[in-house]
Design a protein that fits this description.
Layout: E1 13-20, E2 26-32, H1 37-48, E3 55-59, E4 62-63, E5 81-86, H2 104-107, H3 129-214, H4 216-225, H5 246-286, H6 293-302, H7 304-333, H8 342-423, H9 425-483, H10 489-494, H11 523-526, H12 548-576, H13 581-645, H14 652-705, H15 721-736, H16 742-760, H17 765-879, H18 885-903, H19 909-972, E6 985-990, E7 996-998, E8 1006-1008, H20 1010-1020, E9 1026-1038, E10 1077-1085, H21 1095-1098
Parallel strand pairs: 1-5, 8-10
Antiparallel strand pairs: 1-2, 3-4, 3-5, 6-7, 6-9, 9-10
Helix pairs in contact: 3-5, 3-6, 3-7, 3-8, 4-9, 5-8, 7-8, 9-12, 13-14, 13-17, 14-15, 14-16, 16-17, 17-18, 18-19
Amino acid sequence: MSSSGVSEGVVQRGKLLVHVAENGHSFELNCDEYTLVEAVQRYLESLSGIQLNDQLLLYLDMKLEPQQPLSAYKLPLDDREVFLYNKSKMRSNSTPPQEEIESPDRIYPDPPLPSSSNDPHPLDDASDPALKALPSLYKRQVRYHYQLGDAIYQRTVLKYETCERLSREQRVQEKALEIARGNLDHIYKMILHNYSDFVKRYSHQQRSHSNLLVNFWRDLERLRSIKLIPALQSDNRNCLSDFVKEENLRKMVEDCSSSHRQFESKVEDFKQEFRDLKGSTEHLFSSEASINNRVLERTVKEHRKYIDDQRSIMQALSKDVSMVKKIVEDCLTSQSSDSLHPHDAVSTLGPMYEGHKKNYLPKLQACEHAISNLFIFCKDKKSEMIGFVHGYMQKIAYIQYTIRDVRYKFSVFNEAINRQNDQFGQLKVVRGIGPAYRACLAEIVRRKASMKLYMGMAGQLAEKLASKRESEVRKREEFIKVHSLYIPQDILSLMGLYDTPSICDVNVAPFDSNLLDLDISDLDRFAPVQDNNSEDIIELGEIVGTNKMEVENAKLKAELASVIARLCFSPLDVEFESLDEGKMDILLKEAAEKTDEALRLKDEYVKQLESVLKDKQTQCGLYEQRIKELEKRLSDRYSFEHKIDKDDSFTTGKIGDSKSEISGEGDREVQGHNGQFSEPMDDASYGCSSLVSKSGADKISKSLDDNMSDSSGMVNPNPNLDSSMVEPSRDANEKDGNGDMVPDVGMQLVTSSTADNMLQLSKTGDDGVEHGNVSGDAVVELQSTLEEKCNQLTELKAKLEAANEEVAKLARDLETSRNLLDESQMNCAHLENCLHEAREEAQTHLCAANRRASEYNTLRGSTIKIRSLFERLKSSVSSADMSSFADSMQSLAQSLTNSANDKGDDGPAEFRECVHMLAKKVSILARHRAELVDRYTKAEVAQQQLTKELDQNKELVNTLYMKHQSEKQGNKEKISFGRLELHEIAAFVRNTDGYYTAINRDCSRYYLSPESAALYAENLQHNPAYIVGQIVHIERQTVKPSPSSMVQAECTSGSRQPGLISGSTNVNPYGLAVGSEFFVVTVAMLPNTAIHPPPAAAS
């Protein structure tokens, strides 16, 4: 079949191989790429008997549509296969197709037994019993053996070919099942993916809606418990529950609960239906045919040897029949002579007959029996395969129908899910009122903090510009101061060098003036949340200035409020919105990135605090050394004053004067020392104060670490970070009325210690030693305690860090070891499997090697024997000439037969048999050669005789041809009196009406045209009685009744000569009846033409 709509261009032509799935039949169609699928289906309908509407064509995983050409599927291709499925057989009530295989026993029955009555022979009436036995016993029986063997052989071959065909058809059915299974698997994976998405969406919605229903009254009570800010309260709105109408909500909750239960029941039924579908599909995929087609093909190939054996036996029977026929003919021709004794012929044919009866025929029947068993086995397997394919395709059709039904239900359930979401929308509103209210309050705090941050940044900008202006003013004053010594002031003034930069005023217009007065601490008071962690929210002080730390605190406060507002609705979004996997992955990835960034910033901040701590510890060490030096100098001073007080050699007045002088000098000296020591002591006091303040700042820094993920600006490179962070805390403490903070206690402690030491210097000598010792002890004790605490703190911090690092390291090592252990176990299992497979494969290879070695040894021995036999054959062939070649082969065959009988070796039996057959054929060919030589001699003589006869016949043909040509030339010049044709000669006679009528035996209505008659009249100067001319045109006309109508005639001949014309005549010029046909003939003049009628016409 081919397409008729092929236009220009290269057309892809090829063979389309179509397999029928239900029975395994195959059809090969010749078509091109423009052939429509519908045309292919119609042709397949005539071949397979499957109706067009019941046909389903599959190519790979594509369905061939009837209206599409084959080029849409890149067909036809020689290596591509299309499978045809019968949709009518996929229905549940259909019956499997029946495979009708005609029995070969009916096609090739056994021949009838021979009888002399049906096949008489001349030797049947011979007087010699031996001659009489030759045709009856041997010729007829041997021929019967051959006919019986041929019938057995033909039946066996037909059965074997049928087995091969059934094996191919089962292989086709297996491929068809694979194609159908692959198509079903593709559809099943799609529906399974849709089901997974539906279950995920439904599970998310079911949990969300169940949570809403279970916690609805709790959410409503929570809304009742949360009071509005007094500024927001009114007569009908005092708490958050006043935002909704409780009466409507009660009925809505009941409706939602009922709808939720009903929908849950429907979904459970749908899940059960899908579980059944999944179970049936997986069971179908796991079920396979009990027929192993590879084993069947191997079995069929193994039975091929029986066909070869039968073929060899039939060749031997054919030779025996020829030999018996020749012997009988020889006996018949030499019956009167004694050249061939009948008894010798009977003794020669006796073993042959016995060999046929006891060896050849039983072996043929045994081979037929083996092939018949194979034939029955293949028929049973084919019937079983047809039944399996039929049931399998019915299951596939049922599963596809179920999948189609489930696919329709998906749309219904998705619509139901959307309706459920709409129905639970008001309950979601109840759940979201509290978080939305808290988010609004947090937004207020964020906007206030943002406003303060905005103003603080404006203040920073003003301070920065002011410092820039002061620097510029100083530079200008220095310049004027230096260069005014050389340049007059009026010149400098004219140059404009006395101008100063203007003062920059940064003014921010007020905004957000309508915001409520709220702080972060007010969020939990006005909008508490469940399981609220107050530790996560730090309390920041109000902004009191525009320094860098205050602006940073405002920024942190704004970011914290923004995060709180954003987190209010994040749980609801995650709970109520159905997030797909892509969006969830993006959210998780962003959260992981933010967490990593926060941890990195926290680590940086910890490192910075550690560096600040080290700097402060170094500074404290320097202060301690300075304190020790001062204590030593004070101790030396106290000793010197003690010696002066013990000097009794002076008088009382002198003593008093001396005391007064010493006292004055001591006071001056102490004052001098005070003047000298005031600055270091202040530095020491400041160092201790800043150290204690540092501990407070560390606490604040610790609380700030908890919120590092919400801020990226916590790191402050200023080394005075600890002193600057104390001020906001102190302001907050003063605002709350709490004045006993740790930094103040530390400052008072250090100041009091310093004051005690300074007071002891102004005491008299009697009290100086005692007070000096007490103050020294206090300083030493304070120093030792401080140093001990610092050391303990350092050690604990180092131990804690080391322990944390060790724990983290051990955790990493443990995780690595666990992964390595799992990987090692998997590798061990894999290696064990590989080792087991390798052992099995090695055992298989060893068995195969042993088998091949034994086969090789056997083949080697056989090859050596065959080679020796070939050498003998070669010597026999090469030594003999053409005349003695047949005798040499006959002697070789007899020698091989005798040697086989002596040794009893059946190895080269086939070779000996072949040599024996070759010897016989060579003998036959030798006889045929002699006969052919004789025939050739006779053929040469016959050829010479035929050559002579051929030459004589050639002369006779030439003579007859010349005679025929002369007769033909004479016939051409004769007048035609039969049917008139163009270019013939006609004779016309003038009748009584003056018209010329043709002389014709068949029809008398041939009239000469008036033009021709006029032509003859002009040339002859009179009207002749007859006219003879060559016909150039014949015009056929019909007599019509209307005298006024004109007949337009056309020329009936196919010639296009210039002499052909068409004319118009009267309706009935020749007086004929209406409806009669007549012919008007136009002729050409013939010079000197006389009428010569033929002899038949003349007579």
